[in-house]
Amino acid sequence: MYYSIHYKSTVGDILLASDEDSIIGLWIGEQKYIGNTMPKNIIEKDDIPILKEGIAWLDDYFTGKKPKISRLPLAPIGGEFRQQVWKILTEIPYGELTTYGHMAKEVAKRIGKNRMSAQAVGGAVGHNPISIIIPCHRVVGTNGSLTGYAGGIEKKVKLLEHEGVDMTGLFVPQK
């Protein structure tokens, strides 16, 4: 069984979900891929201890306290490749950035391949079911482009600004 709770944040309405023992999802509004990453049988319930821990984590995050990701048990639902990408995302420090290219090199190293497609990594990053806590907003294009945030580029910008990221040299590519 899966449970959820709603949270109001500066980047919009958040739906936080758990399997009772771990956080399995955090979606901002009607973000892209929400239908692919959210289990169908979620019951809204506000007395689940792990969801209360998740809310406390979000309160700390949005008040600038830099909570540790390791503070919460996480269980994102996805295949082995995506799990590897999401694990690497959890290693990006608060207020810092990495690129899809760097992530691809790291994934390749960890799975014993010579190289990995940055586009494949980007797909896994985009399907991250636990936004913010697993900080996919900290990944940018090699040229500094703010691409690929399922919650929307404007939310990515707000999260990066909230974390004090130097936005000099970062840009939103024109379509």
Automatic annotation (TrEMBL):
The GO terms this record gives for MF are: methylated-DNA-[protein]-cysteine S-methyltransferase activity
Q: Which organism is it from?
A: Alkalibaculum bacchi
Write out the catalysed reaction: a 4-O-methyl-thymidine in DNA + L-cysteinyl-[protein] = a thymidine in DNA + S-methyl-L-cysteinyl-[protein]; a 6-O-methyl-2'-deoxyguanosine in DNA + L-cysteinyl-[protein] = S-methyl-L-cysteinyl-[protein] + a 2'-deoxyguanosine in DNA
Q: Where is the Methylated-DNA-[protein]-cysteine S-methyltransferase DNA binding domain?
A: 80-165
* Protein family (similarity comment): Belongs to the MGMT family.
* Top-rank lineage group of the source organism: Bacteria
Location of the Methylguanine DNA methyltransferase ribonuclease-like domain: 2-76
Where does this one sit in the cell?
Cytoplasm
Q: What is this protein called?
A: Methylated-DNA--protein-cysteine methyltransferase
Q: Does the keyword Transmembrane apply?
A: no
Q: What is its main location?
A: cytoplasm
Keyword list (alphabetical) reads: Cytoplasm, DNA damage, DNA repair, Methyltransferase, Transferase
Q: Could you give one GO CC term from the UniProt record?
A: cytoplasm
Summarizing the function annotation, the protein's role is: Involved in the cellular defense against the biological effects of O6-methylguanine (O6-MeG) and O4-methylthymine (O4-MeT) in DNA. Repairs the methylated nucleobase in DNA by stoichiometrically transferring the methyl group to a cysteine residue in the enzyme. This is a suicide reaction: the enzyme is irreversibly inactivated.
Q: What else is known?
A: This enzyme catalyzes only one turnover and therefore is not strictly catalytic. According to one definition, an enzyme is a biocatalyst that acts repeatedly and over many reaction cycles.
What EC number is given for this enzyme? 2.1.1.63
Q: Name one Pfam family in it.
A: DNA_binding_1
